[in-house]
Amino acid sequence: MGDEVAVRDEQLMRRIAKILEEARASHATHNRKVKELSALRSHPNFFASFSRTLVPLFSFQQRNSSAERIVRFVAAFTCAPAPKASSGCDNAFLEKFLGFLLVAASASNKTVRFRACQIISEIILRLPDDAEVDNQVWDEVIEGMILKVKDKAAVVRMFAIRALSRFVNDSENTDILDLFLEVLPLEPNAEVRKTLVLSLPPSNATSQAIIDCTLDVSDSVRKASYCVLANKFPLQSLSIKHRTIILRRGLADRSVAVAKECLKLMRDEWLLKSCKGDPMELLKYLDVETYEPVGESVMEALLKDGFVKIREDESIQHYIGSHSDKTEAGELSAGTQNIRLMEAEAALYWRVVCRHLQTEAHEKGSEAAATMGTEAAVYAAKASDDNDLLERILPATIFDYICLVKVHMDAGPNYRFASRQLLLVGTSLDFSDATNRKVARAFVRELLQKPLEHELDDGGNMVAIGDGINLGGDREWATAVTGLARKVHSGAGEFEEVFSQALEELAQPCRERAADFLQWMHCLALTSLLLENSKSFRWLQGQAIEPEEILRSLLLPGAKHVHLDVQRVSVRCLGLFGLVERKPSEDLVKQLRLSFIKGPPPISREACRALVDLMMWHGPQEIDRALGNDHSTQFGNQRVDSLPTNGSDMEESVNTDVLDLLCGGFDRDDWVKVVSDENESICAVLAEGFAKILLLRDKYPSISKDSQASVLRRLICLYFSNETKDLPRLRQCLSVFFEHYPSLSVHNKEVLCKVFIPVMRSMWPGIDNNTGNSPSLVSNMRKRAVQASRYMLQMMQAPMYPKVTETQDGNLSSAEATNDLAQSNLEHGEEGLAIRTAAEVARFPGKKTAAERSYISALCRVLVLLNLGSSDQEAVKLLRSLLNHALVIVAAEKDLVKDMKQFSERLKALDRHPDRELLQEQADVIFERLGVDFKLDVNNFIAVPQTPVPCSTRVTRTRRRVRRESSLSDDEFSPNTVAPSIPTTVGARSQRASKTAALSKMTAKKDIRIYEEEGEESSDLTSEEDSDEDAS
């Protein structure tokens, strides 16, 4: 009977295996094979046979197409209804099979867990909504998959997340959504992150997480993020900020596939479905007045792909009517015409369309001129069509255009954005006609002379509206006016002539000292616009107002004006004036130095930026020569602790180099903390300027290596300072600088090697009078110093850029290059840094404070991380000698001594001639090359301390044994048990005698330990009794 059952089970397994084999070949046979396999469910041992047949699948690791077809077939069969059931599926078989898979999902084998989670995910996703499954079974499945979400295998995590994706929307399973949001930013695998993003439901909690994934390093994850945003998040459900972030990142993505996915989202879902194909309606959802660059990029993308169709009744001309009276709301009278006001979205739309058509016409015209035949004709026809369309869109006459702009300018601040867009539209107009150019010149002059807008505060004082620096109150308006002026006055010298005439009229009340601060600011704003667009003073010679008059009558008096806003704009103009000059003048440099030292933070910041720009443009020597200081900038290790603040000190500071003067700003604590209205501190301006100077050091040969080292030290200390944690722009600037600086040249690495120890001494508390107030503050200072040391070590170990290496190898022959590299590697390589660090450790031979001990420990931990080469044998021998001193100094720290000895073994392997000794002259030469002030006596050899071994306790044990023998009774130990004297000739100890001696020692140790414990207890308990006996 049992044999017959076994035979039937074997036959059943063969039939199941045959069906699975046929289903593995093609997906087309799955429906038929599911019916065949369902017919076998009535067999009593079907589940056992089916499970045993699937066992080989769980051991198959490859994810090929045949294995994937079997998995899908098994899931389809599991979800298929039973033959005798009218609806639903075979719940008993489904529950048993899920239990079998959950057991497999907990296996130790990665492949088994992967296949189990894969089949579970396929079953869950295929189950119909009306499937009736026991709640306990679902709870077990959910709990098991939640555990697998944090599995160590990425493929297991991926299918566990896929299985849970169907339950993430249930209100009863909110823990699943919380788990997904928790693991998403921490997941290292890109495919798992992609699965997580695709599994997240649309909600306010998930929108930010999905948008954050648009910055993922993986292209597939970013593409999946835009796919989810397109399918699950309607346009109206997202905030304006989120919409603009999505489009700004997606349209500018480096991956073409991701950019296309974002364009598909914007075109198919947002433009066609939500906005019915109207680009202006889409721009209304983006708030183009706040996010103008995003709206501009959206229009450019749509125009480039041809999704913007301009109808016949759409153009700028339709905003200009032909009736003489006001006919409807929103129309204002302008002369004999009625002009409808243009919304911000329409103004941006037409500005981008006009620029696009003009650019396309120019490119096609150029291509037509460069080709011949039919191709040239096609390009010419396309250019002609674009020009015709542009002409139909633009206003018919220049007068109509000017009226349109004026109406919007007079409509108030709500239409200022539209006015600026219309000013930019003017660059697409044709001003070749003399009459049109005359009308346009009058309009440009009117724009230049338009006073600044202002309002009254609570005290009745006038307050300028805008930034107070640029014409019109903001940079964008000044740029639009300049662009239109350049288009109208395109002849040589015309631009400077018109601006000089307008400036001469505005400067008249300022020269007469009758202007208020608003007039001063308007005049200086026009001056800065003229200086920014002038490449040389040659075009300003002989004009209505010449450069010297601008400096004497406007800029220098303005820098001494009582109003701070006037001073700020004047100092900025002084910097621009100095950039246009061939050589900076003495009065200009003096005023900038005075404003930098004595001015309030906003003024000092502008003066600092001006001095940095002048120093980069003309060079430090030219700035110093302007004051009569004709010497090289060699301030070395000098420190400007404070800047002069009174007149007498200012006279003395004239002899201070500009580089010294600017470096003194790093030591002003208030300049690090005080942040100006532009959210930028003075130290941030200094750091950015000095970072540029160090990157372009070849252009400034007058700056010595010591000067560069001092500047770099201040930059590193500033980067790791706790006071700059709230200045993200400064941190970002310095981070980019440190990333590229050491890889540009070996000279930069030499400077970095030179500042390593000074940086550590200046940052470590308790060294160089750098103290902390509390233990927590000292601990934080030490942590930052350790971070700085590791960061500088990474910079030292950064590889050189290929261009520098090729240049170095190309300038020298192979033998000379090797010799020179070995000779110079000491200064810029890790060998030099190791010698500097070891010499610094050797400076603390005697008794040390806690700060000095921690400082030495930190240096040694950096020392053992250095990668040394065998280029210079003298340096290796010197480093070995210094390391012996360092081992003696840190001998108390066992872990550190272990690392130091391993480092010493590496050094020993690099020494090719260990029998040769280092001469004193050779050590002195190396220290002189490195600039290290340290005297090492090479003749005073210090042996490397050996690993400490446990000290012998024989003497102590003997002493304690005598104490024990005297306290115990004579019956236990007789006087005859005294050990005999050791004879002169020691014979071989027998095995029994050796065993007896060993047992005696073990017993003695145990007795000593027991006696000591009893002695300690009795001493505490009987102290009073003993004292009483002594008293009696």
UniProtKB/TrEMBL annotation:
Coiled coil: none
Annotated GO biological process: cell division; mitotic chromosome condensation
Transmembrane stretches, start-end: none
SUPFAM superfamilies listed in its UniProt record: ARM repeat
Chain positions covered by the region annotation Disordered: 960-1032
Regions of compositional bias (Acidic residues) in chain numbering: 1013-1032
InterPro entries reported for this sequence: ARM-like, ARM-type_fold, CND3, Cnd3_C
Compartmental location: Chromosome
Keywords: Cell cycle, Cell division, Chromosome, DNA condensation, Mitosis
Domain Nuclear condensin complex subunit 3 C-terminal: start-end pairs: 522-868
Biased composition range(s): Polar residues: 974-994
CC terms in the record's Gene Ontology section: condensed chromosome; condensin complex
Superkingdom classification of source: Eukaryota
Principal localisation: nucleus
PANTHER family in the record: CONDENSIN COMPLEX SUBUNIT 3, CONDENSIN COMPLEX SUBUNIT 3-RELATED
Similarity comment: Belongs to the CND3 (condensin subunit 3) family.
The protein's name in its UniProt record: Condensin complex subunit 3
Naturally occurring in which organism (per UniProt): Rhodamnia argentea
